[in-house]
């Protein structure tokens, strides 16, 4: 029987049958990228829409703010804490986003989606403020430098922007060590806490926004969920 020529069409190279099929990997990557883009957008939109849950807590929350603000507003640095933390988060987000834009089409799409989500969250926050028109709790607290009338208090824009930026960072940098990812969460939570300490917001105007980080925290595997992150 004629043997196939070593270089002929029937020849097999060593271990040829062991070569992995890379097509499923490429398909999985495209599907995963689309899922992540939709996930980032959905989470950031929910970050603004979910604020309605806090409205039911406005009574006791406002009373708490009025009771602690005369003391906490005088703490050194309380009037600038939120602004500083939002700026730090913004710088981190810009750095991470810039790197993602140059790391392939999928990372770039995720970065753009994150940026759009931050803008959408801020716009939704402004829309809720205009509709609810809730005056700030600091209006009758003499120890607090309260914003001018018409600058509504519900929800806190600083907190919305901080949490939206933190969400984008965490979903872009899923391979950061836990300490770095926890630092991002702490910055976002600190921005909300800073507005309460400053006396210009009540806890209900910031706390629900911060809690909306929980699904993101679980998704990137920061230890709050028993589910394992599949890479």
Strand and helix layout:
Layout: H1 23-49, H2 58-72, H3 81-101, H4 105-132, H5 157-172, H6 178-198, H7 207-211, H8 214-219
Helix pairs in contact: 1-4, 1-5, 3-4, 3-5, 3-6, 4-5, 5-6
Concise overview:
Helices cover 60% and strands 0% of the residues. It is mainly alpha-helical.
List keywords for this structure.
single chain, 231 residues, mainly alpha, 8 helices, 0% strand, elongated, disordered C terminus
Structural class determined from secondary elements: mainly alpha
Number of strands: 0
Order of helices and strands: HHHHHHHH
Radius of gyration: 24 Å
Mean pLDDT: 79
Largest sheet: none
Approximate strand percentage: under 5%
Can you count the helices? 8
Shape: elongated
Can you characterise this structure?
60% of the residues lie in helices and 0% in strands. Helix 4 (105-132) runs antiparallel to helix 5 (157-172) and helix 5 (157-172) runs antiparallel to helix 6 (178-198). The protein has eight helices and no strands. The model is unreliable at 8-17, 19-28 and 224-231 (pLDDT under 50). The N and C termini lie far apart (50 Å). The chain has helices at 23-49, 58-72, 81-101, 105-132, 157-172, 178-198, 207-211, 214-219. The radius of gyration is 24 Å and the shape is elongated. It is mostly helical.
């Amino acid at each position: 029987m004629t043997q196939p020529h070593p270089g002929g069409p029937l020849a097999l190279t060593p271990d040829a049958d062991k070569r992995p099929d890379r097509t499923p990997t490429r398909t999985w990557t495209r599907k995963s990228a689309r899922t992540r883009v939709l996930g980032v957008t959905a989470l950031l939109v929910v970050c603004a829409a979910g604020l309605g849950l806090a409205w039911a807590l406005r009574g006791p929350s406002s009373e708490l703010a009025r009771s602690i603000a005369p003391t906490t507003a005088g703490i050194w640095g309380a009037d600038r804490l939120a602004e500083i933390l939002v700026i730090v988060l913004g710088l981190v987000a810009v750095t991470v986003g810039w790197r993602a834009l140059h790391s392939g089409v999928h990372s770039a799409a995720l970065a753009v989606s994150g940026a759009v989500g931050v803008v959408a969250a801020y716009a939704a926050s402004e829309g809720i403020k205009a509709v609810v028109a809730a005056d700030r709790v600091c209006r009758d607290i003499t120890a607090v430098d309260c914003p001018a009338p018409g600058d509504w208090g519900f929800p806190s824009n600083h907190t919305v922007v901080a949490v939206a930026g933190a969400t984008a960072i965490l979903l872009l940098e899923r391979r950061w060590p836990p300490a770095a990812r926890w630092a991002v969460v702490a910055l976002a939570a600190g921005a909300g806490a800073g507005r309460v300490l400053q006396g210009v917001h009540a806890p209900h105007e910031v706390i629900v926004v911060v809690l909306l980080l929980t699904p993101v925290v679980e998704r990137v595997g920061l230890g709050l969920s028993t589910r394992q992150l599949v890479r």
